[in-house]
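Dear Dr. H.,

I hope your travels went smoothly. While you were away I took the liberty of generating a structure for the chain from your last submission, since the lab meeting agenda had it listed for discussion. I wanted you to have the full record in hand beforehand rather than looking at slides cold. The sequence, exactly as received, is reproduced here:
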Amino acid sequence: MFFRQSSANSLSHALCIIAGIIFYFSLSGDVAAEDASASSGEEAVAADPMTRAVVPVPREDFPESLLWDHRYSLQTRQIKARPDSRILWFGDSITQYWEVAALPVWNRFFGSYSTLNLGCNGDRTEHLRWRIQNTDFSNSSPDIAVVMIGTNNSGQVQDPPEATFAGIEAIVSDLREVLPGTRILVLGLLPVHYRPDNPHRLLNNEVNRLLPRLADNHHVYFTDPSAIFVDEQGYLSSSLMPDGVHPSYYGYEALARKLEPTLMWLLRAETTRPGIQVRYGNIYLEFSTDPFQLYDLQYSTDMTQWIHVTEQEASGEKMHIELPASDFPPHSFFRISPVIK
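The corresponding predicted structure, in token form, is as follows:
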């Protein structure tokens, strides 16, 4: 009797063990399947440039990601501490290195406008999207957000131009959401490498051909400063961009001179936006001026090509100009700049 009871107990114990083993391996199989599915999903994101350039992700390229984490933390504190910043600059190392290679230029051209540098070395479009989406901008209301991003998509992972454009388009959408009252100025990608036929350069050129699609010339604007870095044949200036990617001190100075009129125009764009003062078929413009200074009035439909209209001397601190609206295309923009003799 004892033997039969013991055998029965042993058999029952053995069956429990076998059932447990079967359950364990079935569960392990489910977990492995889930891991494989997650892994295949991540690999699919990494393999598809159109997805990779758009899906927001933080930097994970250790050890560079440690520096990125530090700079991102610093920037979030700066945004909170400086809610009065009028111009925010978003980008990669080309934006960040204003602080490294040309801080005096930055201060001279933009320092008085309370600007904040939000560039991060090595960023691609997907990294900048993550930073924007994971930053509290609730106390910020800048006038302008400057965006130059994408050259690392072309250079690091050779994303096709359409993918890089899609990433930049998503960034503009993010900024419109978190900074709804801010004008966004998208910059063309700078030329890279000495030769005009360099593959990285050609990818950047194609991105620049797509970027004007983003501009509605009301909330979003586009300008391409790349021409200042190359000669007529397209060869890169070694003095302006000695490493073939980042501007030198003189390169940043040339870039600042190129961008300053557009930024200053955008800061007072409420007086020169298309149609803002059109009455009885005439356009009425008002500009702040220096007395007795001669000014050149220009117009543009895309803020990249400016066309001369007239020269006029200012008689006081304000200049008022009246123009027939029929002489200009719809959605024209106007600007004045002092004539240097």
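Two observations you may find useful: The chain is about 45% helix and 20% strand. The first helix runs from residue 2 to 47.

With kind regards,
E. W.
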